[in-house]
UniProtKB/TrEMBL annotation:
UniProt xrefs under PROSITE patterns: 4FE4S_FER_2 (PS51379)
Bilayer-crossing regions: 437-458, 470-487, 507-528, 572-589, 609-628
Region (Disordered): 397-420, 715-757
Classification via Pfam families: Fer4_5, FMN_bind
PANTHER family documented for this protein: ELECTRON TRANSPORT PROTEIN (PTHR30224), ELECTRON TRANSPORT PROTEIN YCCM-RELATED (PTHR30224:SF4)
Protein's cellular compartments: Cell membrane
Origin superkingdom: Bacteria
This protein's record includes keyword Metal-binding: no
Protein name: 4Fe-4S binding protein
Lineage start: Bacteria, Pseudomonadati, Pseudomonadota, Alphaproteobacteria, Rhodobacterales
Repressor among keywords: no
Sequence ranges assigned to domain 4Fe-4S ferredoxin-type in this UniProt record: 652-682
């Protein structure tokens, strides 16, 4: 490539990145834009219009005939609402003057668990359970925050959405901007302060006995009875163990930001390191558990949020995230038991929390009911710090001094140093998937060996045929339908969006199988182009090829499109990809929805268990493949187009050709399963799936004319070395040339179809 051409491409790349950053900078959704997508009647029955925005953050009156029914606001304007995707979930909430939720409308989210198949109406139905909730009582401290109904498979997403609605409404109510409720925080007891002189350590039994550590102890039978009493008989039958007397959970809670409690449970050295880390006013709590039920669960591993516990105080709830969490191996207190799970949670600064005031830890217990459905019950562990840790109460008339303004009265607590920290989220994910990673690593090593030793393997057509069919079956059954590691064009769009808006390796490392696959695909692009993925590692591609193989066995007629038409259908997939890519720069959420042009989610990730419209579309993509092998791969796949573009940079050309290929021989071109070989003989690497069918032909001395001729010459030389009398041959006429006889025999025998599976 000449220098001017390289310079021109570099300039275009720079301009492209600048434009991308400009487009991505303006994607934040405003309240006006959200209301434009939200009919007033969806928030309040009979509402007709919106009034003028008021205050900051803005709230908008919802009107009916000039009368104000209530107000509309955007949840993300009042409280963080980040879910799985790392991006805000934006919900328009309708709330009346008394603080009662009257309507909810989802306007924007990027949650993959919803985008890949959990029906959005099911999620919205769960959130609609908050409609009618009186959050005025919650803001006043008279009631606990309501919980959205859990949706199986989207627990974290629903919890984040429900929490953001409740917390934003409570903050709005306490601001006094609703004319039906007075401003101010919830009524509370006289503010108390910690006594800095109390620093002595105690043993475990003393801490339990005086209430420094509070516990919640439940048996399996007690939890089963609670589900039965709550009208969930199926959940009551799905006990964690067969013995009702077994320990369900022994849950312990303690504020380790209190010096004496922290030193007792963590040890002096660990506490001193903790106390030097956080800003004034921050607190930390220790949560420990043992038994059949885990208070951590697995939601924090998948989505970074601990979905089974919630810290609650003064009408506000906090669900900890993985960045707030530190794993503690053992408790330092003398006589402390060896517990299965011990976690230190640092309370974020944006959550108002005072350890001197009563608070609760709510445990959300989940049990399976039918299929993937789950039932949930909350259990509360209340905590009130013992009097011995507090200074005497101030006279009622004396103003209470905020804890944050007196650093000496609130000792600081911080996170441990790196050597004491537990494994990062992505490391935990890799540990949990060790077996799957080993299987995938072995499969990739085998594929690498197939590619490196292809010259040897393709000399044995039938052996290679069954190796390929077996590998495709593994790709479809295990990689696709079992572990759902189907790559998608959405991954490409998300990666580009991450580069433009704040890239983080940990986000991609948290899905180990997908990360390993993408790494393998990236390496394969440098060596062989898009072929290793499209031809061997794509479950949907394997489904197409195996279904076409079955169709051939059933003698389904195959359609051979004319080369001119075939060549003009190639660009369709590139147009689809460019359209999705351009749309993703404007709205990633819209691009993810339009990416349903890929039937991968329906056919592979969800095993066709989806709404009938998606299933029909997936079947419509598969049906032509019974007559035209890999029809979708050839003409429609946007992921294949995305991989073909960088695949042009491959470093090696390992597919061998004879001088006769294309001129005059057309055998490989006619037999190519995806017609990636031009009539002139050259292989189009943009379309090649590296099935190696042409390499099998390359070595086949019964089908390749070049090899047939070479074989005939060898036979002729061998015969000439052993002369025989003319009479011994038994022939009276001129013998036909060996190459001609071999070609005629190959045509007449009509050998079995040995194209790649």
């Amino acid at each position: 490539m000449s220098m001017p051409v390289r310079l021109l491409k570099s300039c275009w790349l720079a301009v492209f990145l600048v434009l991308c950053s400009m487009v991505s900078a303006g994607q934040a959704l405003t309240l006006d834009e959200a209301l434009a997508k939200t009919p007033p009647s969806q928030l309040f029955e009979g509402a007709e219009s919106y009034g003028a925005p008021e205050g900051e953050p803005a709230i908008v009156p919802v009107l009916k005939g000039g009368e104000t029914l209530g107000y509309a606001y955007l949840n993300s304007d009042f409280t963080p609402s980040t879910g799985y995707s790392g991006k805000p979930i934006r919900i328009v909430v309708g709330i009346d003057r008394k603080g009662v939720i009257r309507g909810i409308h989802m306007v924007e989210h990027h949650e993959p668990i919803v985008l890949i198949g959990i029906p959005e109406p099911k999620v919205l139905a769960a959130l609609n359970g908050l409609i009618g909730a009186d959050l005025g009582r919650v803001a006043a401290g008279e009631a606990k925050p309501p919980q959205a109904e859990i949706v199986s498979g989207a627990t974290v997403t629903v919890l984040v959405m429900g929490d953001s609605i409740v917390r934003s409404a409570v903050r709005l109510i306490r601001s006094g901007r609703l004319d039906g409720i007075a401003a101010g925080p919830a009524p509370a007891e006289t503010r108390r302060e910690l006594d800095p002189a109390v620093t002595g350590t105690e043993d475990w039994q003393t801490l339990l006995g005086d209430g420094s550590v509070r516990s919640l102890v439940m048996s399996v039978g007690e939890v089963s009875k609670a589900f039965a009493d709550a009208g969930q008989p199926l959940a009551a039958q799905h006990a964690e163990t067969g013995n009702p007397e077994d320990a369900f959970i022994d849950l312990y809670l303690a504020p380790v930001s209190v010096p004496a409690i922290g030193r007792s449970l963590l040890g002096d050295a660990a506490y001193d390191r903790l106390a030097a880390k956080l800003q004034p006013g921050q607190a930390a709590v220790l949560v420990a558990g043992d038994g059949a039920y885990s208070f951590k669960g697995s939601g924090y591993v998948r989505g970074g949020i601990f979905d089974r516990i919630e810290l609650m105080q003064d009408g506000q709830g906090l669900r900890f995230k993985d960045r707030d969490h530190t794993r503690i191996p053992v408790l330092a207190a003398a006589g402390a038991p060896r517990l299965k799970e011990i976690a230190l949670f640092v309370v974020p600064q944006d959550f108002t929390f005072d350890v001197a005031q009563p608070f609760e830890l709510q445990l959300l217990v989940q049990r399976a009911t039918r299929g993937r459905d789950k039932a949930t019950l909350p259990f509360d562990l209340a905590y009130q710090i013992p009097e011995r840790y507090l200074l005497p109460a101030a006279p009622p008339a004396a103003p209470a001094t905020p804890v944050a303004d007196t650093p000496a009265a609130q000792p600081q607590v911080g996170q441990p140093t790196a050597e004491d920290d537990g494994p990062a989220l992505w490391k935990t994910m890799w540990q949990m998937n060790r077996a799957n990673i080993a299987i995938l690593g072995t499969a990739l090593a085998l594929l690498t060996a197939i590619f490196f030793f292809q010259d040897v393997l393709t000399k044995y057509p039938r052996t290679f045929l069954w190796v390929r069919r077996g590998y495709l079956a593994f790709t479809l059954l295990w990689l696709g339908w079992l572990v759902h590691a189907q790559l998608s064009v959405v991954n490409v769009l998300t990666f580009v969006n991450a580069l433009l808006s704040g890239f983080s390796w940990e986000y991609f490392l948290s899905a180990p199988l997908v990360f390993i696959l993408w790494s393998a695909v990236a390496a394969g692009l440098l060596f062989w182009g898009r072929g290793p993925f499209c031809g061997w590692l794509c479950p949907f591609g394997a489904l197409q090829e195996l279904s076409n193989t079955i169709a051939r066995k059933l003698r389904v007629p195959q359609i051979d499109l004319p080369w001119g038409l075939h060549e003009r259908l190639w660009p369709i997939k590139y147009m689809i990809f460019l359209g999705l890519f351009g749309l993703s720069l404007y709205s990633l959420a819209d691009a993810e929805r339009w990416a349903e042009v890929e039937p991968f989610k329906t056919a592979i990730v969800l095993n066709f268990m989806r709404e009938w419209g998606f299933v029909l579309f997936a079947l419509a993509c598969l049906l032509p493949g019974l007559f035209i092998e890999r029809f979708y791969c050839r003409y429609l796949c946007p992921l294949g187009a995305a991989l073909a573009i960088p695949g042009r940079m491959r470093m090696f050309e390992w597919l061998k050709r004879w001088p006769e290929c294309g001129s005059p021989c057309q055998r490989c071109a006619n037999d190519c399963p995806v017609k990636a070989i031009h009539p002139e003989g050259q292989i189009n690497v943009n379309e090649c799936i590296y099935c190696m069918n042409c390499q099998v032909l390359y070595h086949d001395d019964t089908r390749c004319p070049h090899m047939i001729t070479q074989k005939a010459r060898r036979e002729k030389i061998a015969r000439s070395a052993q002369p025989k009398p003319a009479a011994a041959t038994g022939k009276t006429g001129r013998e036909q040339p060996p190459a001609f006889r071999a070609q005629r025999a190959a045509t007449a025998d009509n050998p079995p179809d040995l194209k790649g599976a």
